[in-house]
Amino acid sequence: MTLIEPATLRGSLVTLEPLTPEHHDELVDAVRDGEVWNLWYTVVPHPEQMRAEIECRLAEQAAGSMLPFVSRRNSDGLVLGMTTYMAIDASLPRVEIGSTWNRASASGTGTNADAKLLLLTHAFEVLGCPAVEFRTHWMNAQSRAAIERLGAKLDGVLRSHTRMANGSLRDTCVYSIIASEWQQVRSGLEHRLAKHARGTGTVG
Predict the structure, then answer these.
(1) In terms of Cα–Cα distance, which of 85, 176, 164 is closest to 122?
(2) Which listed site, 36, 82, 157, 193, has its alpha carbon 20 to 30 Å from 112?
(3) d(Cα 112, Cα 73) in Å, to the nearest integer?
(4) Is residue 204 part of a domain?
(5) Does 203 fall in a domain?
(6) What would the pLDDT profile of 88-101 be if each residue is shown by its tens digit?
(7) If you ran DSSP here, which 8-state letter would residue 116 be given?
(8) For residue 4, is it within any domain?
(9) What is the Cα–Cα distance from 47 to 177, expressed in whole angstroms?
(10) What would the mean pLDDT of 177-202 be, rounded to a whole number?
(11) What residues does the N-acetyltransferase domain cover (predicted)?
């Protein structure tokens, strides 16, 4: 298997399936749940931009720099959103998990933790990555907290790194998990999912 080869990853709560143009209508429905494109510190496609977003991600897949997925909830088959392996370095190999968004109503249901478990397991145990990276906006406190809850460590902050759609400059927080930390990170994710299954806590 190569880093850019599409794969279907099935977990206890969600299945990550390779993105295709046929996902368009389901993704439009998902992004309208909570209108998450209105958060200025995130990059989430507007419903009218969804087809172009799909085409862009598939073009990056064809170029070898991205492997995009759609997240589908196992209990009812509902599409929740999108996620990717991006910034792929096939020579190392190394990937970044990013360009992720989910419908607002799925927050706190454990589906995001399950998706991260799937992506990290595949990256470390199948692809053989020595490190997996995460990036987010300095102002996106929810995303930063979620990444830190995984056990990722902050490598640094890239000041005035990229320009947002509203013209503002983004300070980008760069996090990573390395292979020697993976077993501990996996145990933490599995514990969170087990708590969710027992109904004794919530995960996100």
Answers:
(1) 85
(2) 157
(3) 10
(4) no
(5) no
(6) 998 889 999 999 99
(7) H
(8) no
(9) 33
(10) 84
(11) 14-153
Which residues make beta-bridge pairs with 131?
178
Say how far apart CA 35 and CA 134 lie, in whole Å: 23
CATH number where 84 lies:
3.40.630.30
User: Residue 133 falls within a domain, yes or no?
Assistant: yes
Q: Of 108, 75, 113, 118, which is closest to residue 193 (Cα–Cα)?
A: 113
Q: What's the pLDDT band for 133 if we cut at 50, 70, 90?
A: very high
Task: Tell me the two tokens of residue 133.
Answer: 């990276």
Total tally of structural domains belonging to the chain: 1
The domain of 20 spans 9-197
Per-residue confidence at 202, pLDDT binned at 50, 70, 90? very low
Helix or strand (DSSP H, E) at 141: helix 141-150
For residue 29, what are the contacts with CB-CB under 8 A and spacing of at least 6?
Answer: 79
CA distance 180 to 182: 6
